[in-house]
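pasting for the record
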Amino acid sequence: MKAYIFPGQGAQFPGMGKDLFDSSKTAADFFNIANEILGFKISNIMFNGTSEDLRQTSVTQPSIFLHSVIFALTKENEITPEMVAGHSLGEFSALVINKSISFEDGLKLVSIRANAMQKACENNPGTMAAVLGLEDNLVEKICEEIEGVVVAANYNCPGQLVISGQINSIELACEKFKEAGARRALVLPVGGAFHSPLMEQAKNELEDAINKTVFNSPICPIYQNVNGLPFSSENEIKKNLISQLTSPVKWTQSVNNMITDGANEFIEVGPGKVLQGLVRKINRDINCSSLNLENVE
């Protein structure tokens, strides 16, 4: 059984989507539609911008969404997903491919989400850190002992958990993780405390937009970040998508549940190969591959 998975923020690279635009009229049409919806030529930034240009949240998230989804839509006759999942932002890409939402609505929601998250970052400064080499329950326990906001944010794979919260609390937590024997505890170069209570403002803004968006019955289940379980009900999918902004990404749990439910091949759609690496660390016996036109350096 094939599981299609979609990457999140951090997978962007200069020149992303250019080969796709040049080689497919269908893809070019989608990029032009995207430029109109967003009100600026995001295609120019994707094709010609620098790494710094692509690092702006209002650009990063739509760019990764477009790269993943447009490629998948140009190969629609070849893609027959039996289950899908996306890492954080990637959940929106997955929902387009399982036909829960349209391409246009997916892009609008991603843009609203990105802008809302940027505002939340400015109003409630925070950061994230990667913790390597500790059991999840020990990381959680240390987080609970730290004063201020510091929570588990991304359960990426066994021995790799990302935390999120207030800057001072995160820095203190990193010291505690090292004392507890972590192989690494490293503050990440991100703009804010994603998947933490500091995103509450963004969650409220996104909730309003999601509730105004038409969701359809999907062609296959989506394993959602909030608990790693499969969902096919439009109302449950919407509720989980709203909760996602302030809840941890349970990627390890999602992948394990997909494998339990019959997934024996994971296909990453979009830029980079990060998710394939995580899947292999979760279960090294599973076959992983990319559906991607470009060779990412």
